Amino acid sequence: MSSTNDIRRSFLDYFESEGHARVPSAPLVPQNDPTLMFVNAGMVPFKNVFTGLETRRYSTATSSQKCVRAGGKHNDLDNVGYTARHHTFFEMLGNFSFGDYFKERAISLAWTLITREWGLDPSRLLATVYHTDDEAFDLWKKISGLPESRIIRIPTKDNFWAMGDNGPCGPCSEIFYDHGEHIPGGPPGSPDEDGDRFTEIWNLVFMQFEQEANEIVGNLPKPSIDTGMGLERIAAVLQGVHDNYDTDTFKALIAESGALTGTATTGANQASHRVIADHLRASGFLVADGVLPANEGRGYVLRRIMRRAMRHAHLLGAREPLMHRLVPSLVAEMGGAYPELVRAQPLIEATLAQEETRFRQTLANGLKLLDEATGGMKPGETLPGTVAFKLYDTYGFPYDLTEDALRAQGFGVDRLGFDEAMAEQKAAARAAWKGSGAKASEDVWFDLAEANGSTEFIGYTGTEGEGEVV
Ligand code: ATP
Ligand code: MG
Ligand code: MG
Ligand code: MG
C-alpha cells in the first residue's frame, strides 16, 4: 500500500518525467490576489501566468498546492466530519500547461497516470464533460475507451470554469471513482450525486475562451490547461478505502487524538475526532504560513477553525488544552513534505495552547448557557439570534461554532436575529461615542472601520474574485 507521502511524490515524479517543471507549493496566504482569503486551488499561484501578465522559464508545471476552503465562496467547513471527502485544509495535485499542450495530451496524461502507473480499474472510472464540449467527449472515447454511458455530459457551471467576470474561461472535465454499491450516492449529474459513492477525484480545466463582463468574446490565443486532484481523495482510492479519514495520515492523527483523550474513535465520537484531525492540519499550516488567531479577516477564520476543534475536544472530555499536544504527530506525518511545519512547530504549539487556554475560560459557561437556552426547544426549532450573539460577544463562540454545536440535536440558529443584534451593538457603540467634539472626523473613523471590515464577518462573507473551480 502506498502512503500519502508516496502518492504525492509519485504524481510529481510522473509529471516531471513528462517534462513539467516541479514547482513547490505557494504559501496559503495569496501573494498575488488581495481579494482572495486563502489559496484554494493549485492554479492560484499561476493566475498571472495564465493571463499573460507574467512569464516563467517553463511552459508546463506540476505542483502539490496547500489549499484552504473555509470561507468565502468555497466554504467546506460545514462538510468536515460529515462527508468522507471534504477538508478545510487539503493538498491539490496539479499539472499545468501555459499555452503548451491542450485537451488531448491533458486527458492522455491523466488517463495514463491513473490506469497504467497507478493501476486503477477502468470499470470504476467515469468522466464528465461540459454538455457542448464534443471535442472532449470524443477524446475521452478515443483515449480511454470508456463506454459512452460513462462519459457524462453536464450542462451546469460545475463543468464550466471562469477565472472571474473577465479573463480566461472554458469547459472542464472531471474524473470520478465509483467506490461501489455499498456506499450511498448517485453518479454525477443525478439527483443524489452528493453522496460519497461516486467521488470526484480530478478536475481538468480547458482554458480556451476569453471573457469580458461575463460574456465570451473570443478564443484565447494560446489555450491552456489547469488540473486539480485532491491528494487525500486519491490516497483513499489507492489505499482501498472509500473514506479520506481512513487514509494513513488521518488514521495516525485520529489515533493520537483517541489516545490523548482516552476515548474510542468510532461511534458517537467519530465526527469529533475527524473535526479535530482536520482542523489540526488547517491550524498548523495556517500558523506556519504566518496567520495568527484574531478577531477579523484571515485570523478570524483561523480562530473559528481552532475553537471549533476545541469544543469537540471538550466534548470528548478533555479537561486540559489538547490541540497543541497533537502537533508532534502532525509534524511526523507531514513535516517531511512541508519543512515549514517543522520550523514553525514551537510557534504552532504555543499558539494553540494559548488559544485553547483562553477559550476554555469561557467555553464551559457558554455551553451551559446554550444548554439552558435549548432546554425547551424541539428538533427543527431555531435558537434566538440574541442568544447566539451573547455567546459570540460574551463567551467567544464564533457563530458557526454555535451552529455546529446545535447540529447534532437538529436545532438551527436564527442568523438574521444574530446579524440584527450585531448591528444594534455597533449602532449603540457609535451613539455612545461622544468623543472630543470633532464629530465629522469620528464619523469618518467609524465608516472607515466598517468599510475595512473590522468586524468578525469577513470570515464567511469575504469576497473572492476567482472562478468556480481549480
Ligand atoms: P466537490 O464537488 O467534491 O466539492 P469541487 O468540484 O469543489 O469538489 P474542485 O474545485 O474541482 O473541487 O477542486 C479540484 C479537486 O480538489 C477536486 O476534484 C477534489 O479532488 C479536490 N477537493 C476539492 N475540495 C476539496 C476539499 N474540501 N477537501 C478535499 N479535497 C477537495
Ligand atoms: Mg466543492
Ligand atoms: Mg465538484
Ligand atoms: Mg470540481
Mean pLDDT rating: 91
Under the CATH scheme, which architecture of the largest domain would be assigned?
A: 2-Layer Sandwich
Strand content: 15-25%
* Share in helix: 40-55%
Family: Belongs to the class-II aminoacyl-tRNA synthetase family.
Main location: cytoplasm
Domain Alanyl-transfer RNA synthetases family profile: 2-470
Subcellular location: Cytoplasm
Describe this structure in words.
There is one protein chain. By secondary structure, the protein is an alpha+beta fold. It has two domains: 4-238, Bira Bifunctional Protein, Domain 2 (BirA Bifunctional Protein, domain 2, 2-Layer Sandwich), CATH 3.30.930; 247-416. The protein is 43% helix and 18% strand. Strands 1, 2, 5, 6, 7, 8, 9, 10 and 11 form a nine-stranded mixed sheet that branches. Helix 4 links the parallel strand 6 (125-130) and strand 7 (151-154). Helix 7 crosses helix 10 (339-374). It is globular, with a radius of gyration of 23 Å. The chain starts with a helix and ends in a 9-residue tail after the last helix. It binds adenosine-5'-triphosphate (ATP) and magnesium ion (3 copies). One magnesium ion (MG) binds next to loops.
